[in-house]
Amino acid sequence: MADAAHRILDLAEHALSTSFPLRVRAWDGSEAGPSGPPVLVIRRRRALRRLLWRPGELGLVRAWVAGDLDIEGDLYTALDHLSGLFWDRGERDPSATAVPATTAETLRRARGILRDPATYRLIRSALTLAGPGLPPSPPPEEVRRRSGIAHTKRRDKDAIAHHYDVGNDFYETVLGPSMVYSCAVFPEPDTTLEQAQYAKLDLVCRKLQLREGQRLLDVGCGWGSMVLHAVKHYGVRATGITLSTEQAAYARKRVAEAGLTDRIEIRVQDYRDVADGPYDAISSIGMAEHVGSERYLEYARTLYGLLRPGGRLLNHQIARRPLADEETYRIDEFIDRYVFPDGELAPVGSTVSWLEQAGFEARDMEALREHYARTLRAWVRNLEAGWDKAVAVTSPGRARVWRLYMAASAVSFERNRIGVNQVLAVRTAADGLSDLPPTRTAWLS
């Protein structure tokens, strides 16, 4: 089987009906395809069995997480080329797929394919290449299929635990000293990640017009960076809530070390259970992606009810591009199975609409798409530099998940496939007064 790479390339190009954009190196040492890096390295025949039993993205991801295949050369370039298999062929979003076919329809399609002699020969070749054996088990890092209603309190807590309770040492390696897991803001080309995260936190505080003595609620407080910044630099009293027990323990330790336990409270609490309003301001930074479209209006109304009249919400959230037919939207399998179970992205227009339906007045929207691409590339560099530690405190598969997820996300932001936006909304008082300065420049100074 000294020509495995050529046979794999033939199979791929027949299945895709287009040329394959990467050079391929197979387990037998053979190579085929465009010259030069990046190279798709197929280390084991098992990778093909994964693809045969689960064609498409999920099969590829399982092979990547298990170490059955790898990329040699620039990972971003490789992912950009591979994503072009979707985008350059007219699909609006690789996660937007048709409604799954019924079993009968699938069988009819399969019979049609097998009647084509050329396709039948290719399938036989694929089975020969893949070798005998049952479908390989998914890597242990994969979340199994969930049942029941999405975005219940119990299911949301489990989803958060999968993503965040993988060890604070791991996140220290990836995020650096700031421990901020959301888009940074880079004012200058030479701004460091730490400086950029400081700039983002300060931007949020200035948009919220925080003043000494006010009450701030930080929804999805992570490791406590936002509440610490707001209390230290703006003199507020802050409450941070998270569903992650590991995040809460870490945040409480930071608060105690800063001597601020009398001004900051960290709770393991669902946003739906907060009942100690009113607050003067609410920050929600990188949390609303977990809410889900069916629950979003409830989320917006809950936060509205927790604010005093004139109070402000800063909602910082990743957004997807709108589709021509919203009924075709499907959550990306890789993200759902390995990264953010039950996570959903909505267009920014939908987010603003939900906030206004809840009673908010949307006063400002700032897009930070390019900044998130830079942030993700910085996190990938941190992960690669601390690879041995990241593997030791989690697993090789978990580290590979995060490297792929962050690099692919960086490409998506760079190519304008997804964005990230800060929306400033106000619970405007009954008399129409918002307590905002007259110009945007004034309330950012």
Provide a descriptive summary of the structure in words:
The chain is of the alpha/beta class and 445 residues long. It has two domains: 4-130, no CATH class; 153-444, Vaccinia Virus protein VP39 (Rossmann fold). The chain has 18 helices and eleven strands. The strands form two sheets. The chain has a seven-stranded mixed sheet with strand order 7-6-5-8-9-11-10. Strands 2-1-3-4 form a four-stranded mixed sheet. The protein is elongated and about 75 Å long. 42% of the residues are buried. Mean pLDDT is 88; it is low at 88-102. It is an enzyme of class 2 (transferase). Residues 170-411 form the Polyketide synthase-like methyltransferase domain. GO terms for molecular function: methyltransferase activity. Its EC number is 2.1.1.-.
